[in-house]
Amino acid sequence: MHEFTEKVGELIPLDEHQIIKHRYQVASKLSKGKVALEVGVGQEFGMQSIAKSASKYVGIEYSRENVAYLNQVQSKYIIIHGDAHTMPFNDSDFQIINALAMIYYLDMEIFLKEARRVLNIDGTLFFCTSNKDVPGFVKPPFTTTYYSIPELNNLLLQNGFETEFYGSFTKYEQS
Fold first, then answer.
1. Residue range 144-154, pLDDT digits in tens
2. Environment class of 40 (CB within 10 Å of its CB; exposed 0-12, middle 13-18, buried 19+)
3. How far apart, in whole angstroms, are the C-alpha atoms of residue 86 and residue 110?
4. Which residues contact 152 (CB under 8 A, 6 or more apart)?
5. Three-state secondary structure call for residue 84
6. How far is CA 144 from the centre of its chain?
């Protein structure tokens, strides 16, 4: 596991800002009225939008530095230090898990089993990631594995998830 994360105050190019904003708008809409878990809170780029929409918000973050920062700047929401591979929650605690731009730091097989465990029977796992098949894709440092859409589809189905994919680039037909 690595603790790489963007820091508050760092310059983000406008196109990246728009992508980040869009993913949190979708997460907020999906979390409306639900008990929501955000895995990999970072330094709260979109925490407020999800938290305000959800009936209950909990965040889990691997970086102790980020957890300390978040708990210093806000006290309204529960933010805990933890590992997405072994989350300290009961079975079926959440109606939605949001894992935005961070799954490529994880062992997906372990994470998906853990996500399935803490989600209720009708729960939703919402995540975003880069598609390794997009022309010009470059794997950033510290990441583990990137998947194509067909690879993700197979992995999710094998772990008991129904799938829907949305994106900005190449369109794939599911077989």
1. 888 888 999 99
2. buried
3. 8
4. 129, 163, 165
5. coil
6. 15
Q: Is 35 helix (H, G, I), strand (E, B) or coil?
A: strand
Name residue 42's amino acid.
G
Q: Are 149 and 133 in contact (CB under 8 A)?
A: yes
SS3 for 91-140 is CCCEEEEEEECCHHHCCHHHHHHHHHHHEEEEEEEEEECCECCCCCCCCC
Q: Which amino acid is at 51?
A: A
What is Dmax (Cα atoms) for the chain?
Answer: 48
Distance CA 160, CA 120 (A): 13
CA–CA distance, 147 with 139 (Å, rounded to integer): 11
d(CA 120, CA 39): 16
- Tell me the whole-structure pTM to 2 decimals: 0.85
Distance CA 46, CA 27 (A): 9
Amino acid present at 18: Q
C-alpha–C-alpha distance, residues 116 and 12, integer Å: 33
* pLDDT one-digit tens code per residue, 36-89: 999 999 888 789 999 999 999 999 999 999 999 999 998 899 999 999 999 999
